[in-house]
Design brief:
Blueprint lengths: L2 H11 L22 H18 L3 E8 L5 E2 L8 E9 L2 E5 L2 H7 L12 E5 L3 E5 L6 E9 L19 H12 L4 H31 L9 H8 L1
Parallel strand pairs: 4-5
Antiparallel strand pairs: 1-7, 2-6, 3-4, 3-7, 5-6
Length: 228
Amino acid sequence: MTTLQISNLIVEQIDDNPAAPVSVTPPVSGPNTVPPECLAAINEGQNLAALMTLCLEKTATFTLTANTCWYLPRPALPDLIAPLRFTLAGVRLRPSTLTDLEAQNSVWQATAGAPARYVMLGVNLLAVTPQQTGAATASMTYAQSPAQLVNDGDVPAIPEAYHADLVSYGVYKVRLKEGAQGLERGLKRFQMFVNNMSELAEYVRARAVAAHYDNQPPELQLAQKGSQ
């Protein structure tokens, strides 16, 4: 579905008129007609879907500089969520933790040699050890966040089978401003969104295990059970 089609369904399902919506912020100007409030909700839903499921992947180069342990990767990889596979000259770097590295070598942050392990803290702090004496170009396959939807004809990057879930999320988000009653009605649609993202995450998790990726989607079902 296009962004406009998703927006029209959101407006219809909050019992409004897509031709002249009154329950959502109207378009400002220009050739695009999706109300900004709907557009923001659709983008937020797609970003959340990518974060919950790691369903979008990308491979890009990443420069390792000489004698450098710590990196801020997002300036070079602005859509990075989590590394899935990190290689240098065909050799795979293995994920680790700060605790493990400290236990094995207390001076790991200043150890020369061929890079063998990496640590990712959050989404914008990366450490590589050992550190080689010259610059090199590594390859990183990673879970990525989607590009922002802007135009009426833009198509979401998440799998097409789950585009309808952006409608559910949009209905939930737009109704939040209605107060407690709107929240109660919208929560049912949000739960539908979460349930379907859990289904997608299970598929991505199985694919990640088969590919021996370093990271997998979070266990959404366990999180849901813990909140009940």
